[in-house]
TrEMBL record:
Domain called Arc-like DNA binding: residue spans: 5-29
GO molecular function, one term: DNA binding
Top-rank taxon: Bacteria
Coiled-coil zones: none
Annotated protein name in UniProt: Arc family DNA-binding protein
Keyword annotations from UniProtKB, A to Z: DNA-binding
Pfam family, one: Arc
Gene3D superfamilies assigned to the protein according to its UniProt record, in alphabetical order: Met repressor-like (1.10.1220.10)
C-alpha cells in the first residue's frame, strides 16, 4: 500500500487531533476518511453538473441532430 506524507501547521495538527479525539478515532483514520469524502464530493458535484447541462441542452441537442 502506498503512503503519503502531509504537512500541517501546529494549529491544523491540534485541530485534527481534537476532532479525531471527539470522534474516538485515530488521527490517521480521521484524515483518511476526510480525504476520501472530499474526493467523493467532487465526483458527485461533477456528475450533478453534467446531468444539469445534459438536461438543459437536451432540446437543443435534439434540434441539432
Amino acid at each position: 500500500m502506498a503512503g503519503l506524507n502531509v504537512r500541517f501547521t501546529d494549529e491544523e495538527l491540534d485541530a485534527l487531533r481534537e476532532r479525531a479525539e471527539e470522534e474516538g478515532r485515530s488521527m490517521q483514520s480521521f484524515a483518511h476518511d476526510a480525504v476520501v469524502a472530499a474526493i467523493n464530493e467532487r465526483s458527485r458535484r461533477f456528475d450533478e453538473a453534467a446531468a444539469h447541462v445534459l438536461g438543459v441542452s437536451a432540446e437543443l441537442n435534439r434540434r441539432l441532430a
